[in-house]
Specification:
It is a single chain. With 511 residues, this protein is α+β, with helices and mostly antiparallel strands. The chain has 4 domains: 135 residues, Resolvase, N-terminal catalytic domain (Rossmann fold, 3-Layer(aba) Sandwich), CATH 3.40.50; 114 residues, Hect, E3 ligase catalytic domain fold; 47 residues, no CATH class; 66 residues. It has 15 helices and 18 strands. The longest helix has 32 residues.
Length: 511
Amino acid sequence: MPEKTKVDGNLALSQKKVIVIDAAERPETAKLRVAAYCRVSSDSSDQLNSFMAQLNYYTTLINSRDTWMLADIYADEGITGTSAEKRPDFQRLLSDCRKGQIDKILVKSISRFARNTTDCLTIIRELKSIGVGVCFEEQNIDTSKMSGELLTAVFAGIAQKESESISGNMRWSYKRRMENGTYVPSVLPYGYIRIDGKIEIDEKRANVIRQIFSWYLSGQSADMIADMLNTKQIPSRYGGVRWSQTAVRYILTNEKYAGNSLWQKYYTTDTLPYQHPRNRGQRESYYAESTHDAIVSMEDFTAAQELMAKRRNVLTPEQNIPSPFRKKLCCGECGTIFRRKRIRGVIYWACMGHDKKGNDFCPVTQIPEHLICEAFLRLYYKLKSHGEDILTQMLADLQAIREHRMLWSEDVIELNKQISDLSDQNRMLASMNQAGLVDPDLFISQSNRLASQLQAAKREKDRLIGARDDDMIRQLVDSVKVLSADRILVRLRGGVEIEQTVEEAQVKWSF
């Protein structure tokens, strides 16, 4: 503690002498300790030449900078580059960084530093947290000049390119095997199994396939066959008993059951996010005969296709005609969808539950299409003539619901956050490009990816705000009463009720 001395009867602190020790080197003049990491040839006869060439290159490069000093050159054999744990000099490099002996690392490319972009990003983040930057020469990336968010965005773009490259290589391999007839799908249809890379018949399930073809050729419909399989408790493809007419039709039309193969019925898009649309001529398809043993004869398979075409064209042509009521008419008794059919020249809409399972299951009978059209037209003209007050209130309610959704819906809030994050990433990427810190090709691919994601997020937000019919119904409609087989009563918020009949030409309003 400072000494106390007495001056004129008063105590005072005496002044201590303080010695200032100058720093050995000012921070602004200190040189960056720069290391280089490389991988040498896996050919033992060329390892020395490879290492010496890179040693001379990096030594010359680092010594040419007045503000840099060479820390060390680290090199590993090329074949061990896929795993960081198997690269001893790479581990030595990381250890020296953690000891505070290195400020910057020079690497030729990201692939030389790490083959896996996820691991690479993890290591770079750790190095960045301890003040070590990594410069990738080929990509023109200096991690010390990038924010964490931008670092993530850039490496996400690099990972996307790697994924697309791998996917492209796999598609090329599949295409070659399809062309020479040796392709074996990863997923085989019901009735087949893979043994030693070959397609073999699963006899237990093959008998089910043969029975399906036999029933169909004897006159049973796909719906009836599905019901029989469910009644007999026959396990479906994934073990449960959930046969449907769609599954039966898929079996009846699959050429593989006749021993042939049509490949690339669906195709994978070239860029992320990958989609798998049906191939309608956008890509080549490949057809090969006798690629494996058949479960049914070619004669039976061909007969099934001809019978299906005949039934489709003769028995149910009306189901293929576009209609505004398709998939919109639902039975109030059993909940099943109505389907369109023609009987003696008249178009009807029939409850599928009633048609398939009879009056005991559902008593609702078929309705002529012209009566449904007339009922909708009556409702429209009644609303147009007398519904101004009601529609005004409904529009106000809709606007209130929309505004409520905009402000408080969790998924809309999450989309707003996503849109904001994507916009920030886009701005950071643009700034980095202006500063020359990113390869032009990478900038374009990453910018396109962000723009695509941003557009998708905005579309999803618009969809949620503008097309949530279930929410509209819950908030606008109090209840719906089925008064009879031909009358319903819809009660709206505020006590407004609309009664609509099918056969009678009237709409009753009550307030």
